[in-house]
Amino acid sequence: MDLLALRCFQVVARHEHISRAAAELRVAQPSVSRTVARLEAELGVELFERRGRRIRLNRHGAAFLRRVDRALGELEDGRRELAEAAGAGAGAVTVATETLMTVAALLPGHRAAHPGVDVRLRQCPADAMAHLLRTRAVDLCLASEPLAGPGLESVELLREEVLLAVPAGHRLAGREGVGTAELEGEPFLTPGPGHWQRELADRLFARAGLRPAVVCEGNEPGALLDLVGAGLGIALLPAMARDAGLRAGLAWARPADEESRRVLWLVRDREAFVPAAVRDFAAHALAHFGATPGTGAG
Predict the structure, then answer these.
(1) Is the pLDDT of residue 110 over 60?
(2) For the domain that residue 268 is a member of, what is the CATH number?
């Protein structure tokens, strides 16, 4: 088996969809199908269950994927280690984050201190981040929960309250101690299932025996702020969204439930090679948020 076949299998396994994998790999669908079929023939087992055009990773494929992720991750670590030893430029760091708002404030200081470093951002939900770290698709993650998985280390960056964003002139504008029962029937704007804001909203409402009246699911808090300002509904947003002060037509209220908080974590894979550019970005993030190194989980 060759590296191209393993990479092809890895991408197909992640998407469980031939055409999406082909688009990412920038090759024709028939080529992807043939590559996977040759790999299965070489291994002597099928790696996927096939039902028409749908494919699903089977137990053999899942076991093989863990080994492939580890092997390709080691090779990528080796490439980066040699590049750093050879002094190939200032380096690069790829950071995954649930919302770009989280990294916007810390980037100017980092760019001023490390002007030659190539910073790449990837927005995704927290439940996709462990895989990205394991496959070396990203170096660091900023997540609103400590990520689970072997070798993952989470360091607390920030604790902040979560507030209610409401349209200016709303009956709750400026209120302190808003009970969840007072939100019954209010049109609610929230990210989709799997995002921390949605999970927090569902948890708060469930404790009050209610369900949020969701009228919009959108995964970018900046857009949610605009929609709240346009009068579409209300939203739970972290205090940093208020502190950014970038939107007109908004007001804020403070929920009564003490659980209306979030913790921001910096997560990395302990087993991955850590280039200087990655170490510097992590140190800058800790300093920016005033975090103490060593406070974490994992």
Answers:
(1) yes
(2) 3.40.190.10
Q: Pick the closest to residue 284 from 113, 145, 96 (CA basis).
A: 113
Dump the DSSP string for 109-147: HHHHH-TT-EEEEEE--GGGHHHHHHTTS-SEEEESSPP
Structure tokens at 128: 């996709």
Report whether pLDDT(265) > 80. Answer: yes
Structural domain count of the chain: 3
If you search the block for the tokens 């550019």, which residue do you land on?
277
pLDDT digit string, tens, across residues 52-62:
778 899 999 98
Name the DSSP letter for residue 83.
Answer: H
Looking up tokens 């462990």 gives 130
Angle of the 18-25 helix axis to the 3-15 helix axis, nearest 10: 130
Candidate from 90-94, 135-139, 153-157, 254-258 with smallest mean pLDDT: 90-94
